[in-house]
UniProtKB/TrEMBL annotation:
Its cofactor is heme. GO terms for molecular function: heme binding; iron ion binding; monooxygenase activity; oxidoreductase activity, acting on paired donors, with incorporation or reduction of molecular oxygen. It comes from the Eukaryota. Belongs to the cytochrome P450 family. Gene3D superfamilies: Cytochrome P450. This is Cytochrome P450 26A1. Pfam families: p450. Keywords: Heme, Iron, Metal-binding, Monooxygenase, Oxidoreductase. The keyword Metal-binding applies. InterPro entries: Cyt_P450, Cyt_P450_E_grp-I, Cyt_P450_sf. SUPFAM superfamilies: Cytochrome P450. Heme binds at residue 159.
Length: 212
């Protein structure tokens, strides 16, 4: 590798590992602050597995957030997916065409660069009548597997950090619901999408420790 290639690779890893997850965490705050009913449903689910129960009321047994516990939280998974569906951290991905092919009557030549518009694909989902509406319950439907969800791209070159991002963001949502109530300085923050989603204005928040 040339030095420039190594520098570019290191920068890309740092950006993808840090910037995207922090941007998604901001989106968690923005979406949940607008939908208190979703927060309450999350807390109900956490309560069902004793994740909101003080140790003294649970035979002094602290429930650890092990993978098998997280996997039981189906509504948490719905919220996580819906946030990333509406506000994917990366708006698109690029691929080089390895061989000429045709798609719906169009010829795509070899060596062209094509772009998968992740955000555009999610927002024009033909399976949904309301693709721009934040509604986590849509992922509980039996046919939810048919919904477009390319936040981490797809295929052999999909994001290698998908599992890490999923774990970090789900833990963030759990801890947020467990430990505090919060409000933001704007009820419906205006967001900009590039290079990653973030509030347009200087958004501030107020976090109050929550006693279970």
């Amino acid at each position: 590798f040339e030095e420039d290639d190594l520098v570019n690779g290191i920068f890309e890893l740092i950006f993808n590992a840090g910037e995207t997850i922090s941007a998604s965490a901001i989106c968690v705050l923005c979406h949940l602050s607008q939908y208190p009913r979703v927060v309450e449903k999350l807390r109900d689910e956490l309560s069902s597995v004793d994740l909101l129960t003080p140790p003294e009321e649970n035979n002094n047994d602290v429930v650890n957030l092990k993978p098998e516990v997280l996997n039981k939280l189906s509504y948490l998974d719905c919220v996580y997916k819906e946030i990333l569906r509406i506000s994917p951290a990366i708006g698109g991905s690029y691929r080089k065409v390895l061989q000429t092919f045709e798609l719906e009557g169009y010829t795509i030549p070899k060596d062209w660069t094509v772009v998968l518009g992740i955000r555009d694909t999610h927002q024009t989902e033909t399976q949904l009548s309301d693709p721009s509406v934040f509604y986590p319950e849509r992922w509980l439907d039996d046919d939810s597997s048919k919904l477009s969800f390319f936040t981490f791209a797809s295929g052999p070159r999909r994001c290698p950090g998908k599992g890490y991002a999923s774990l970090v963001l789900k833990l963030f949502i759990v801890k947020l619901c467990q430990q505090c109530d919060f409000t933001l300085s704007e009820k419906n923050p205006e967001m900009v999408a590039m290079p990653t989603p973030r509030p347009k204005n200087n958004l501030t928040g107020k976090f109050i420790s929550r006693k279970v």
